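To the team - adenosine-5'-triphosphate complex, inputs and output below.
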Amino acid sequence: MTDQIATTPLRVARPRRRFWLPLYSWLLIGYLVLPIGAMVLFSFNRVLTGLPQVSFQWNGFTTQWYQQWSQVPGLTAAFWLSLRLALVAALISTVLGTMLALSLVRYSPREFRGKSFVNQTLFMNIAAPEIVMGASLLGLFATLNVARGFTTLLLTHVAFSIAYVAVTVRARLSGFDRTLEEAAGDLGSSPFTTFRLVTLPLIMPGVLAGGLMAFALSLDDFVASNFVSGSTLPFPVWVYGATRVGIPPQVFVLGTVIFSLGLACAALSVLLSRRSAN
Amino acid sequence: MGESPAPVNVRLVNVTKQFAEVRAVDNLSLDIRAGEFLSLLGPSGCGKTTTLRMLGGFEEPSTGSIFFGEKDVTGLPPYRRDVNTVFQSYALFPHLSVGDNIAFGLRRQGVSKADAAQRVGEMLELVDLAGLSARRPAALSGGQQQRVALARALVNRPTLLLLDEPMSALDAKLRKHMQIELKRIQSQVGITFLYVTHDQEEALTMSDRIVVMNQGRIEGLGTPREVYERPQTDFVASFLGASNLLPGILGSATQGYYDVEVTGGHRLRVAAANVAEGLTASSAVQVGVRPEKIHLVPSARAEEAGTNCLRGVVRVATFSGVGNQYLILSPDGRDFTVYAQNIGDALAPRTGDEVEMRWPVEHTFVVRPSGTMTNEGE
Ligand SMILES: Nc1ncnc2c1ncn2[C@@H]1O[C@H](COP(=O)(O)OP(=O)(O)OP(=O)(O)O)[C@@H](O)[C@H]1O
Ligand SMILES: [Mg+2]
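Output:
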């Protein structure tokens, strides 16, 4: 009897763990993927009303909207604008954020006066509600009399992305072995060459992750963009405007395309890292 | 191995390195001869790494200068110095293959890809790693990584190669193998080696000369034999190997010999050559002898010429296979360590026996108190 009591929990625990953990995981994944699934599904949905509005009743499968993906003039322009904006913003904020991370990790407070202030600012930048930032930027641009458009959007997106890049790169840098840089100098490389050949390749995963994050943040930003876009509408702002009259199915098409591109990127990076591990 | 530039002397002149509170290197002057294998020995924290880092250009001296040949390199950054370092942690570039690691320095010098590849091949051969050129450092064993680090530095044929405890992580057997390898490479390539180690035997067997450092200063300098047989300070005498030291008063010289009067009125003879520099008659000194130089004889035996002797009582006798070690209590209450080889001596003394310790005059030396090195460098 005592024997059995001692062994019972072990015997039960295993199947249970085998059941609950996968169940939990799949439920969570389903919860996360469901909205995306709906988007993909309805991008293939027929529309019977004749109006260019997506219908949320299943009317049958069609690829019509994929063929006519660029038939909504405002939407296509917004889509290209958002891509361009995200690319440029990601590039700029990656460079600036990486440099910021380097200076924060490399210099002692004695060499870098105001370092803790910069750290605080980074934190605040991430923690501050975006709506406050958007409103205050709008105020700033209005006061300075800057015309709203691509430039103000770019400035805004760079401003909220830098902190994310800096934090990501800083995490990568904190375990960096400085002797590697000394070794490069020892072997005759100037500080710049050392950065190019040793430091940058080694922190590249962090830099890429930061850049991707900046790209994603910019691509789907609505709140701040809505304040500073003026009549230049990026994709999310355009879609928000369209919801009041009805969403064209092409929105779902473009959403699906963006999502698929993201998936492809993720798959590629897994593949590459697997290959370099061998 | 072709057109390596003629090695030059490397000189440190009155170099001091002051960190916030610590004086890591204290007014150190040292002449490193072209092509020699010079070892740097000393207790932990005595400034060995700091000295190396100043030579490599990673640390700037607080005062003093460093010369390569006639050229003052004191303020030059590492990449402008013809020095390469084998780092204690190897510091191999993890994102580059073994071949690219070794070619790194050559490529920076503008050597073409093809030439670099050839020299990398030669170097891999030299360190016995041929065929591993495409591997990443992470896929190598510790000993192999070490040899890559060595190859990466050697391939540039620097004026001076700095090695900071490059074998500290290797097991005894691999270490022995690498020592022989290193010595071979050094004589083959003809580069000046400055070698930091904690392993005395390693330093004694491999070096042309040895520097013993303590608290940022040089306490002893010379060939392994000189430093071992004629230490200049009590620190060196007890840091390098073991020594029996007795305080005494230096007498005056007669016919190339000094008498040292030790406590208890005994007199010990010392050859003038074995008296540390800068000592004059009637100064307070320490007289010493190495444990393995002492014979133990029954105390009744007649005196021999040319030996020093002291009486004592065997306090501890330990047998260690290859030899016997004794602690002998001398009349003034001091313990002497005596080491006798196990060569079947019938009359091995036992605990409590009264014995006489005898040793040749030429193995007696007189040292200064530590920290009083006279002007160093020849
Ligand atoms: N960057 C630094 N800042 C402050 N003090 C330092 C620094 N580098 C070394 N020191 C100090 O200088 C002294 C000498 O250090 P060093 O590394 O040269 O010793 P070492 O002889 O190489 O010792 P070990 O045998 O343990 O490697 C030590 O007291 C050390 O704490
Ligand atoms: Mg050290």
